[in-house]
Amino acid sequence: MKKNIAILGCGNLGQSIAKGLISDDFNPAYLTLSKRHYQTLDHFKQQGISVTSDNRAAVENSRIIIIAVKPFNFNDVLEDIKSVVTSDHTIVSVATGVTIKEIASQLPNNINVIRAMPNTATDVGESVTAIAYNKNTDNDAVAEAKEIFQKIGITIDIDEELMEAATILGACGIAYVMRFIRAMVQGGIQIGFNAKTASDIVNQTVKGAAALLIEREQHPEFEIDKVTTPRGCTIVGLNEMEHHGFSSSLIRGIVASYQKIEKTE
Ligand SMILES: NC(=O)c1ccc[n+]([C@@H]2O[C@H](COP(=O)([O-])OP(=O)(O)OC[C@H]3O[C@@H](n4cnc5c(N)ncnc54)[C@H](OP(=O)(O)O)[C@@H]3O)[C@@H](O)[C@H]2O)c1
């Protein structure tokens, strides 16, 4: 059995996955990247990775096929590769909104199809990747797919019906957190720091806060209670934020994004 991996439609996300894979002692010779304008992948070629515009050749040389095109290009790719896909292949789709049923219906029977929803933190090995698959999917295929995404972060199994919710919370979530960080930096500048120092303090504070929750598996409020002295400055600031709809606006934003993704599909 071939162990090789192909990433078809190697744009932003595909390249993030590729970078994450090769930074974690993965042999570049096992990787093939494809996109129509494959000249833009030259920097990968220089690292010993095969680059091509020929999706079929990429599939024939690989066993795990990650499809990372935009949803509107998805059917073109399936049409292109379906004659060379065999039951030895595992198809892993990272495209938003294309269901396992839709993919499987266009391929020969008994192909393992897995959906994965990473975020752009793949680039730095810190993605959370939601993974969905059917009950009849081969366990080894699932394990191999997870292994890929565990090289670039953590994986979480979810039901496929929650894939859109996972897209909002995990993939769009990167943008929500970035906006939160930017606002904190702006606040920091107003109270006296230059932008660089404010960013350094805020970035590490956010990283530290997440690490506290990840390592201790506590509810955020538990950590908040520890830093909110009665009548102190933290609780005054927090309550002021809540009076202006801090939690409410985040929740409403997440729900609005979710309603939008639901309507689009
Ligand atoms: N970016 C994220 O944070 C994120 C997170 C989770 C999931 N996703 C999903 O991942 C998918 C890719 O997103 P992206 O942001 O990486 O998009 P992207 O940068 O546009 O990458 C897609 C690539 O597909 C290539 N392509 C188009 N048609 C092709 C074909 N027939 N054969 C081979 N390659 C083809 C395009 O390059 P050429 O024009 O050179 O062919 C393009 O570079 C989307 O479905 C998105 O919903 C994205």
Instruction: Point out poorly predicted stretches.
Output: none
- The CATH first-level class of the largest domain comes to Alpha Beta
Series of H and E elements: EHEHEHEHEHEEHEHHHHH
- Count of folded domains: 2
CA distance, first residue to last residue: 36 Å
Share of residues in helices: 40-55%
Number of strands: 8
Strand order across the largest sheet:
3-2-1-4-5-6-7-8
Q: Indicate the CATH topology of the largest domain.
A: Rossmann fold
- Largest beta-sheet characterization: 8 strands, mixed
What is the molecular shape?
elongated
Quote the average pLDDT.
94
Structural class: alpha/beta
Bound molecules: NADP nicotinamide-adenine-dinucleotide phosphate
Question: Would you identify the CATH architecture of the largest domain?
Answer: 3-Layer(aba) Sandwich
Radius of gyration: 21 Å
Strand content is 5-15%
Q: Helix count, per DSSP?
A: 11
CATH superfamily assignment of the largest domain? NAD(P)-binding Rossmann-like Domain
Description:
By secondary structure, the chain is an alpha/beta fold. The chain has two domains: 5-158, NAD(P)-binding Rossmann-like Domain (Rossmann fold), CATH 3.40.50; 166-264, ProC C-terminal domain-like (ProC C-terminal domain-like fold). 52% of the residues lie in helices and 14% in strands. The protein has eleven helices and eight strands. Strands 3-2-1-4-5-6-7-8 form an eight-stranded mixed beta sheet. Strand 7 (127-133), helix 6 and strand 8 (153-157) form a beta-alpha-beta unit. Helix 7 packs across helix 8 and helix 7 (163-190) runs antiparallel to helix 11. It is elongated, with a radius of gyration of 21 Å. The two termini are 36 Å apart. Residues 8-9, 11-14, 34-37, 55, 68-71, 73, 76-77, 94-96, 117-120, 171 line the site of NADP nicotinamide-adenine-dinucleotide phosphate.
